[in-house]
Structure formats: structure tokens, C-alpha cells
Automatic annotation (TrEMBL):
GO molecular function: 3-oxoacyl-[acyl-carrier-protein] reductase (NADPH) activity
Protein name per the record: 3-oxoacyl-ACP reductase
Organism name: Geodermatophilus arenarius
Listed PROSITE patterns: ADH_SHORT
UniProt keyword annotation of Oxidoreductase present: yes
Keywords: Oxidoreductase
Protein origin, superkingdom: Bacteria
Family recorded in the similarity comment: Belongs to the short-chain dehydrogenases/reductases (SDR) family.
Pfam families registered for this protein in UniProt: adh_short_C2
């Protein structure tokens, strides 16, 4: 499916009509295709503060064949603007960030990328240094709201000692994989990051479980991780068996019918993975349901069913994976699907929002144990994603939901899938306990 208004507004007739009516014209986003270059043009790189990540940025851009002009003025318009703002000592140095970003952002081409790298405020030596580091978050979120033509701005926080983990995040945010990730903050941590990775099939040879894979976002996740090389074990309830089999056949994976809330679900999944595949590398907890009602009108059945599918099943399956000796292979990845509603709340969704906020708590709490095993656990929080479910919403509510973000359009299931595939990749080893919002910088929540 696609965002009908974006498609219409960029058609011949539609473009003329929206211009005459003074309506917004959302950009066609630059989305990832295997084999495409990291950027469709040059990148400009600047510093504010000490700037200790110059070598990391230079290596990423050089390896991707991206040219970096000597100056910030004239010549070809940049496809990306990168600011190394590590080493700030106080607010006075923020003037350097402004002096570099203002002219560079003005020249940024459509669907460009602005990426700022910074130190964690919590590790600052003084209140002044903490203030300067925290100020960058407000700067980046505001720049993201000022950009147009499908461009995005994001912030990567890189503690000292985690420099090797920054490269994967930089590549993700510069690439088309991050088309609908905007105005977000990601913190990397020190980890053993593989020296190289197949850029086209980074999941080659991996076994990936995707729950709720029969349709919508789950089917898109299955397609993308399979495209990236993984053998997909597509999981969904028996009632969705026909659709599940179709998805599994399409991606040349295997279908496994399972109600994740059943008492024996965890044991059955563990036995299946051990017996058929000898283990598992990636687990994507995507299965989820909604049973919306205002809190005062919500019965216990609606509350309990949402909690069982959206939260308790993720807890039970993950615990079983950890307890099954050797089942989750070294370098294992667990990615849980949360929601923007779990961060900002949503009227009539107290059960759903609570369950999705619970997913975030689960991920953060388990991150240290996963790190000790050389594995990671993260979450994605989708915003308004165009699916068959959202297509059934009332027209007005649907259009408002799709437009109230900096990119002025609904995301696509593939946008969520691309973020999950990146978090599942070997070089994302330094991303752990994080929540990545795939929401086009929705005006709801942070």
C-alpha cells in the first residue's frame, strides 16, 4: 500500500492542483534499494568542539564512495550534512554548530540527511558541559522540523570508547533505510563490531523468527530480512494459516502456526527452532492486536487480550529463548515492536498504549543481560503506518494521523522493516536497549 495523497500530490495533475489550492506536497522519500549508493551526492562534514569522530566519519564516507568537498560553499549541493559535535565544553561552543549547519542545511538537496554526533550529557564533567551536550538534542529535533523535501535530521550519541559502534548508525541514518526516521536520538555503546559486512546481504546464513508475519508490517519484515539473506521462520496464528503460508513461500522461508499466547507456545517455538534449525539468530516480536475502548468502557477481556499478545507473549518467548541453552546464537538479535502510542499515549487505547510502553521497559531492563551474552535487544516504535488496518479508519482521522509529522505523510510497512533489519545486522552490535521511532517525527511524543 502507499500514501494516496503523497502519490496524488506528486502526479502530473495532482501536483498542479495542490499548488493551485495551496495544499502541502509531501516529498517522495528516498527509500533503500539493494545496490544503491549510500548517498546520491556529496557530503559536507564539520566540527563543533574537539570533534574526535573525524576518522570514523571519513572511513564510512570513503568506503561508500561518497565525496567530501573541501569547503562548505559553492559546488554541488550536498546530499548529507554531518556535524561532529563531540568534545563540547560549554554553551559558547554551540555557536560553532550554528555557523557550520546554517549554510550547509540551506544548500541541502531534497531527501537529504542531517546527522549530528555528540557525547552523552550524563557523562559530562560539569553542568555547563552537560548543558551544551543536551542542547544538541533540541537543536536536532528543531532542524528536523524545519527541513523540507523529504530530508531528515537525527542525533547519534557516542560515548568515549564506543567509537567503533558509530559507523553502523551513521550508515543507517544516511541511507534510504532510514527514510521515515526523523528527529530521533540514538545512543550507541561499546561492543565487538565485525570489521566488515556484506552490504547487500548482511543477514546471510542467519535464521530469523518473525511473529505476526501473515500480513501488514509483519509480512514486510519477513520480506526485508529475507532480502537481506536470512531464512525466515514466519509465525502467526492458525487462523491466518493461508496468508502465512503465502508469505513464507514468497520469501522462501518456513511457516510455523502458533498462538503466541498459548501456555505451550514458548516450549513449542524452542523445540521447533532447535529441531529444524539448530538455533536462531534473530527474533522479531511483531505480533500485536488492538481492542480499543475508552478506559471507563473497557471490559476485562479487552484489557487482558491486548496485554497477553502485545506484552506477556514477548516476555515469555524471550525468557524461553534465553533459558534454552545455546538456542540464541552468539551475536543474537531480538527486536520488539512497540508503538508511538506507548510513548505519547492515545485516546481510547489505554490497554494498547500500556502494553507498548511495557515493551520499552522490557527492552531497557534486559539490555544488560543481552550485552553480557554478546547479543542485543532493541525496540522500534512505529507511528502512523499505511496498512490495511489504517485504511479502514474514518477518512478524517486517517488523514490527520498521516499528516501530523515533519514529513507530512504516513510511513510504509517497509520503513519499519528496514529499521528492524538494520537492528538485526551484525554491525549493529553497539545498539542495545534502544527505542527507534519510525514516525516521520510525529508531533505527538518526543
Amino acid at each position: 500500500m502507499s500514501d494516496w495523497y503523497t502519490t496524488f500530490a506528486n502526479s502530473g495533475v495532482g501536483s498542479s492542483l495542490v499548488k493551485q489550492l495551496g495544499l502541502p506536497r509531501p516529498a517522495v522519500l528516498r527509500r533503500y534499494e539493494p545496490g544503491q549508493p549510500l548517498l546520491p551526492g556529496p557530503a559536507v562534514v564539520g566540527t563543533a568542539g574537539e570533534g574526535r569522530l573525524g576518522g570514523t566519519l571519513a572511513a564510512v564516507l570513503r568506503d561508500a564512495g561518497v565525496t567530501v568537498p573541501a569547503g562548505n560553499d559553492g559546488g554541488e549541493r550536498p546530499a548529507a550534512v554531518l556535524l561532529d559535535a563531540t568534545g563540547l565544553t560549554g554553551p559558547g561552543q554551540l555557536a560553532g554548530a550554528h555557523a557550520f549547519l546554517a549554510p550547509a542545511v540551506e544548500r541541502l538537496r531534497p531527501t537529504g540527511r542531517v546527522l549530528v554526533l555528540a557525547d552523552p550529557p550524563a557523562a559530562a564533567d560539569s553542568p555547563a558541559q552537560a548543558a551544551a551536550r543536551q542542547a544538541l538534542e533540541g537543536l536536532v529535533r528543531s532542524v528536523a522540523k524545519e527541513l523540507r523535501a523529504g530530508s531528515t535530521a537525527n542525533l547519534v550519541v557516542v560515548p568515549e570508547g564506543a567509537e567503533a559502534s558509530a559507523g553502523s548508525a551513521v550508515r543507517f541514518f544516511l541511507s534510504g533505510r532510514s527514510a521515515y526516521v526523523d528527529g530521533q536520538v540514538l545512543t550507541v555503546s561499546a561492543a565487538d563490531v565485525p570489521a566488515d559486512e556484506d552490504p547487500v546481504r548482511p543477514l546471510q546464513g542467519k535464521v530469523a523468527v518473525v511473529t505476526g508475519a501473515a500480513r501488514g508490517i509483519g509480512a514486510a519484515i519477513a520480506r526485508v530480512v529475507a532480502r537481506d539473506g536470512a531464512h525466515v521462520v514466519a509465525v502467526d496464528v492458525p487462523a491466518a494459516g493461508e496468508s502465512l503460508a503465502a508469505v513464507a513461500n514468497e520469501v522462501r522461508g518456513t511457516a510455523f502456526q502458533l498462538d503466541v499466547t498459548a501456555p505451550d507456545a514458548a516450549g513449542r517455538l524452542v523445540s521447533h527452532l532447535r529441531g529444524r534449525h539448530g538455533g536462531v539468530d534473530v527474533v522479531v516480536h511483531n505480533a500485536g492486536i488492538t481492542r480499543d475502548k475508552l478506559l471507563v468502557n473497557m471490559d476485562a477481556a479487552r484489557w487482558d487480550s491486548v496485554m497477553a499478545v502485545n506484552l506477556q507473549a514477548q516476555l515469555d518467548l524471550t525468557r524461553a529463548l534465553l533459558d534454552a541453552d545455546g538456542l540464541l546464537r552468539p551475536g543474537g538479535r531480538v527486536v520488539a515492536v512497540s508503538s508511538q502510542s506507548g510513548i505519547a499515549g492515545n485516546r481510547g487505547q489505554t490497554n494498547y498504549a500500556a502494553s507498548k510502553a511495557g515493551v520499552i521497559g522490557m527492552v531497557r531492563a534486559w539490555a544488560p543481560e543481552f550485552a553480557a551474552r554478546g547479543a542485543t535487544i532493541n525496540a522500534v516504535a512505529p507511528g502512523f503506518i499505511v496498512t490495511e488496518m489504517t485504511a479502514r479508519m474514518p477518512f478524517g482521522a486517517r488523514e490527520v494521523g498521516a499528516r501530523i509529522n515533519s514529513l507530512q505523510q504516513g510511513g510504509l510497512p517497509v520503513d519499519v522493516a528496514e529499521t528492524i533489519a538494520w537492528l538485526s545486522s551484525p554491525t549493529a552490535a553497539g545498539v542495545n536497549g534502544q527505542v527507534v521511532r519510525v514516525c516521520g517525527q510525529s508531533v505527538l511524543g518526543a
